[in-house]
Amino acid sequence: MRMNPSAEPVTRPLSARSVVLSLLLGAHPPRLPVRELVRLVEPFGVGGSTLRAALSRMVAAGDLKRTDAVYGLSDRLLARQRRQDEAVRPHARAWDGDWEMVVITATGRGPAERADLRSRLTALRLAELREGVWLRPANLARPLPDELAEVALTYTARPDEPAAELVARLWPLDSWAADARAQLGRATHARHPAERLTAFAAVVRHLLTDPVLPAPLLSEDWPGDALRAAYAGYQRELAASVGLPGGA
């Protein structure tokens, strides 16, 4: 059963790991000395000893890399930061009516491989029309990855179905917009640093699922740009208030 998007979320204490990752994912470059991290996490209720223990666990788990007393994101989390940055500032272009279409041709893949491929295609903001057929309007200024050629054929297409009707079948636009407005309201009204960090972490996760469709295919009050602007403002606020590098 789907929850009411306007319902208030349960507030839970932030873990040291969550605070550190949120700060580093928002920093450019994503590296900070431990003395700076000690200062930065204090407003979020994380003490120095708790932080140092968390940093050790995160290095052991492969979340962070340490060089002397400087901690930075691992390669895996650098890729996550790039996806997050793209979600906040997607590279769109004027749409001429063409669609990207990916048809899966590989067979004999196990469940884990299929799930991984689905995740990769979803991250590219493609949607599944039917099993093995993925598509979206060709309005993103990014090439499809070369490795897709190993498992799929890619096409440029112009479906016969009206574009507005097709996107309505491919994406739950009404529910995405409702959730976006609810999250925007929660983030706007959050006051405590931990509440704001939690609210805007949810905002950026939601932006990762924005299909970034051409404006003619969206409602006039589509909240995607407003949500991105709010998150960019939070990044600037965080950078200004605690001296974090790389505010948007």
Feature tags:
three-stranded antiparallel beta sheet; 248 residues; alpha+beta; 13% strand; Arc Repressor Mutant, subunit A; Alpha-Beta Plaits; Methane Monooxygenase Hydroxylase, Chain G, domain 1; four-stranded antiparallel beta sheet
Can you offer a commentary on this structure?
This protein is of the alpha+beta class and 248 residues long. It is built from nine helices and seven strands, in the order H-E-H-H-E-E-H-E-H-E-E-E-H-H-H-H. It has helices at residues 16-25, 34-41, 48-61, 75-88, 111-123, 163-170, 173-189, 193-207, 224-242; strands at residues 31-33, 64-67, 70-73, 99-104, 127-130, 133-137, 152-157. The strands form two sheets. It has a four-stranded antiparallel sheet. Strand 5 and strand 6 (133-137) form a beta hairpin.
Can you count the helices? Answer: 9
SSE order in H/E notation? HEHHEEHEHEEEHHHH
* Net shape: globular
Low-pLDDT runs of 5+ residues are: 1-11
Query: Which whole number gives the mean pLDDT?
Result: 89
Can you tell me the CATH architecture of the largest domain?
A: Up-down Bundle
Instruction: Determine the fraction of residues in helical runs and give it as a percent range.
Output: 40-55%
Q: Assess the beta-strand content as a share of residues.
A: 5-15%
**What is the number of domains?**
3
Adjacency order of strands in the biggest sheet: 5-6-4-7
Radius of gyration: 20 Å
End-to-end CA span: 37 Å
> What's the CATH C level of the largest domain?
Mainly Alpha
Largest sheet: 4 strands, antiparallel
Number of strands: 7
What class would the helix/strand composition place it in? alpha+beta
CATH domain topology of the largest domain: Methane Monooxygenase Hydroxylase, Chain G, domain 1
